[in-house]
Design goal:
By secondary structure, the protein is α/β, with parallel strands linked by helices. It has helices at about 30-40, 55-65, 85-95, 115-130, 145-155, 170-180, 200-210, 210-220, 235-240, 250-255, and strands at about 5, 15, 20, 45, 70-75, 100-105, 135-140, 160-165, 185, 225. The protein has a domain at about 15-195 and about 225-230: Alpha-Beta Barrel (TIM Barrel). Helices cover about 40% and strands about 15% of the residues. The strands form 2 sheets. Strands 3-4-5-6-7-8-9-10 form an 8-stranded parallel β-sheet. The termini are far apart. The structure holds nicotinamide-adenine-dinucleotide.
Length: about 280
């Protein structure tokens, strides 16, 4: 079944489920992408720093799907922040992808100490106005940076892609997103499997006859997020797509909400500045 779409605040929409290309080997990215698209995925989440944008683009062409049926995301890396550098980085990404536009361009990390994210955001606005990115957003931004770019440019990001999983549910950031019409997109949605064995996940898996991974991905769907799990195995890709013919009950959602410990798998965005 094809995933439902979420409305973006710029009039466009985004599939609620996609697949991620982080750490997908360069040599197999095209085949993994084509396989995922043939199975029914319609969103491919990539980034310049993943080093596999050429395979991402090639996989889209190999899938045989019309370009407009695939939602393509890439991201501007930290070392490319700043107005002119970002314009150049986006053109380089498009060249590697072999595309004339992406559906979503994100600032990968805010890097608050570099303090270039505002100029970087202005470049994304320019790229959107020029049609090189149909929608623009950010990743790993927190309230202060979101507030600042909205106040300074009047342009609200369509998406904030952040780490969300049962152990790190980010309720206050998600409430900020809801107030501003920003779609939350969950990265590392499976949380390195750390919640698979918990009682709420096991109980929901037993009742629904689904795997712990499917229960957790379904939880992301029901909190209203867009979610981008990664699997390089065809069986895993199939499993992670199979989320739309069952639902978690309110009691199961409430039980999973108790798993929030505020613990990250990835880096703290307030401090992460790696080039
Ligand atoms: P993920 O939560 O998708 O987990 C991937 C791991 O879980 C892999 O080891 C995979 O083999 C395993 N897995 C996948 N499906 C499974 C299943 N059904 N059952 C059991 N195990 C399963 O983690 P991720 O790759 O870190 O995140 C997903 C995507 O998010 C990335 O590929 C990337 O596109 C994006 N991402 C973005 C950022 C960012 O800063 N914006 C950071 C990290 C990841």
């Amino acid at each position: 079944m094809t995933a439902p779409r979420l409305a973006l605040n710029d009039g466009r929409s985004i599939p609620q489920l996609g697949f991620g290309l982080w750490q997908v080997p360069v040599g197999t990215t095209a085949e993994t992408t084509a396989t995922a698209l043939r199975l029914g995925y319609r969103l491919v989440d990539g980034a310049a720093i993943y080093g596999n944008e050429a395979g991402q683009g090639e996989g889209i062409r190999r899938s045989g799907l019309p370009r407009d049926d695939v939602f393509v995301t890439t991201k501007v890396w930290n070392s490319e922040q700043g107005f002119d550098k970002t314009l150049r980085a986006a053109e380089a990404s498009l060249k590697r992808l072999g595309l004339d536009h992406v559906d979503l361009l994100l600032i990968h990390w805010p890097c608050p100490r570099k303090d270039l994210y505002l100029d970087t955001w202005r470049a994304l606005v320019r790229l959107r106005d020029e049609g090189r990115a149909l929608s623009i957003g950010v990743s790993n931004f927190q309230d202060p940076q979101l507030t600042r770019i909205i106040a300074e440019t009047g342009v609200t990001p369509a998406v904030n892609q952040v780490e969300i999983n049962p152990r790190l549910q980010q309720p206050s950031l998600r409430a900020f997103h809801a107030r501003h019409g920003i779609v939350t997109q969950s990265w590392t949605p499976l949380g390195q499997g750390r919640s698979f064995a918990t009682a709420p996940v096991q109980a929901a898996a037993k009742r629904t006859g689904r795997s712990p991974a499917q229960v957790i991905l379904r939880w992301h769907i029901q909190i209203g997020a867009s979610v981008i799990p990664r699997s390089t195995r065809e069986a895993g890709l199939r499993e992670n797509l199979d989320l739309f013919d069952f639902a978690l009950s309110e009691a199961e959602m409430t039980a999973i909400a108790t798993l929030d410990e505020g613990l990250r798998c990835g880096p703290d965005p307030a401090r992460f500045e790696m080039d």
